[in-house]
Amino acid sequence: MTSHEIDYRIYGEEMQYVEIELDPQEAVVAEAGSFMMMDDGIKMETIFGDGSQKDTGFLGKVWGAGKRILTGESLFMTAFYNELSGKRNVSFASPYPGKIIPIDLTEFNGKFICQKDAFLCAAKGVSVGIEFSKRLGRGLFGGEGFIMQKLEGDGMAFVHAGGTMAKKVLQAGETLKVDTGCIVGFTQDIDYDIEFVGGIKNTVFGGEGLFFARLQGPGTVYAQSLPFSRLAGRVLASAPRGGGKDKGEGSILGGLGDILDGDNRF
Predict the structure, then answer these.
(1) pLDDT tens, position by position, 203-227
(2) Global pTM exceeds 0.90
(3) 156, 144, 115: which is closest to 6 by C-alpha?
(4) Which candidate, 214, 212, 166, 215, places its Cα nearest to that of 188?
(5) What is the spatial distance between Cα 155 and Cα 22, in angstroms, rounded to a whole number?
(6) Among 128, 97, 124, residue whose Cα is nearest residue 111
(7) How many of the other CB atoms lie within 10 Å of CB of 149?
(8) Which residues contact 36 (CB under 8 A, 6 or more apart)?
(9) Overall number of domains in the chain
(10) Which position among 132, 165, 184, 205 has the lowest Cβ density within 10 Å, counted as fewest Cβ atoms?
(11) What CATH number did the domain enclosing 221 receive?
(12) Which tens digit of pLDDT belongs to each residue from 158-204?
């Protein structure tokens, strides 16, 4: 194996975190901001690129960093090394309510494709690269951009699904249609394309967008019930406007309640 062999345990229900057990000299790489806690004896190191052992030399590191820029991520990742003789633990937390999905890349022929913001952490040696769409429709109308991430190697990786996670195993020729934002990831054998919803009423009044993803087997698809873009949109839509004070939207009294409360500004 080229990737470090790591053990793990996932805790929690709605706001999960994953605890990685590191043997001496083992390491795990993670996105900036996902770190939760670690035992004494673990060294943190900021690195260019994805931390895979394939990136050698200066040009390799620059290329690894460039791949991360294209996917909208930071230039840097953080590696956590166990420098002591005994086992040590380091934990990484979910960015918002949902489920952490462990991905054993050896079970998927060494490659898994995911949304650019789904990746959480992985054993050192796993390559976090870019998956370019070869079809124009996917790039223009995919909803999540032209580029997705690909995780390659023979180690463990962890991705995050918002809300409730659904796992669908598709047989050869079997098709699944999914909202573009609800895709977490899929195996490399899945044929992925964008399909027009169709129909004037569906297009104008459906409220579900103009396109959805069409995924055809054989392969495995992971979907999420609450993508971050949808969560953020609903939070912003519910946020108070005009000074930050709740103006009584949704209450029975509405504006009258503001007057009775002493807020006479209009």
Answers:
(1) 444 445 567 888 999 999 999 998 8
(2) no
(3) 156
(4) 215
(5) 13
(6) 128
(7) 25
(8) 17, 91, 92, 93
(9) 1
(10) 205
(11) 3.60.160.10
(12) 999 999 999 999 999 999 998 888 889 999 999 988 877 654 544 44
